[in-house]
Amino acid sequence: xxxxxxxxxxxxxxxxxxxxxxxxxxxxxxxxxxxxxxxxxxxxxxxxxxxxxxxxxxxxxxxxxxxxxxxxxxxxxxxxxxxxxxxxxxxxxxxxxxxxxxxxxxxxxxxxxxxxxxxxxxxxxxxxxxxxxxxxxxxxxxxxxxxxxxxxxxxxxxxxxxxxxxxxxxxxxxxxxxxxx
Amino acid sequence: xxxxxxxxxxxxxxxxxxxxxxxxxxxxxxxxxxxxxxxxxxxxxxxxxxxxxxxxxxxxxxxxxxxxxxxxxxxxxxxxxxxxxxxxxxxxxxxxxxxxxxxxxxxxxxxxxxxxxxxxxxxxxxxxxxxxxxxxxxxxxxx
Lengths: 181, 143
Description:
The structure holds two protein chains of two kinds.
Chain A: H1 3-12, H2 16-38, H3 41-58, H4 68-87, H5 111-123, H6 126-136, H7 142-149, H8 153-173
Helix pairs in contact in A: 1-2, 2-3, 2-4, 3-4, 4-7, 5-8, 6-8, 7-8
Chain B: H1 6-13, H2 19-31, H3 33-50, H4 58-82, H5 86-93, H6 95-113, H7 115-123, H8 125-135
Helix pairs in contact in B: 1-3, 7-8
């Protein structure tokens, strides 16, 4: 049996340990998606927790034929959208781009560019941002993104393409990537 | 000037091309400086986004989540106490229609077998007693 289905089965049978395993397996992914959409670390933590609470309360609705990860990502994206709607998200000023302690997976050649990319993400519309984030941060396939966002694969491809173009334009205006042009 | 293969290049970056299309775009890249430049900038964005990942301590996240889960359990318990949970109660009440149906059948049978007793009560001695009582002024009713 798929590992996630095993955890879900345990949880449905009353073993909270099954749910704990799911949380520990997916919490960083949920955080990263939320962070890339909400662009605020403490909000990302709230959003990720909210998403897992929705999973906790609605696990009976999960159908074993679909992937748990797709279901979770959809919940995280929706919770992020709800947060942004309530908070009337505005593009963040460049000076406030990053004010949190981040632990990076890999050393970038140009650390400053990371903050700029984060700022540039805030400049692109949410529907493009979510597709780009799921692709670039989580490495999901177009098919998985399609399931997570409940849009067609063609739309996924279009949004990623347009999202990248908008990111590129924003970064070029700031003088980044000029050597790549 | 943009290249018409830009959309295909986008899918190439994401490894979403068929083997044939992948071969085509790789050959195209050798001769198209525009696409090479686009590829370079997209790859830099990709690297920067990938390096922007955050990691939090799994145990710490779980410990922050657990009190909120307990609050949810309390809310759910309160809702169960004061609201009608259709799913829960439909299971509990499922045998009831069966019991009701069985009771009706039993009562109907009783009624059938004891019909004479019922008729006797309504049309028989009791009635006659009542009529005689009404006709008998000495009963002290003052009628």
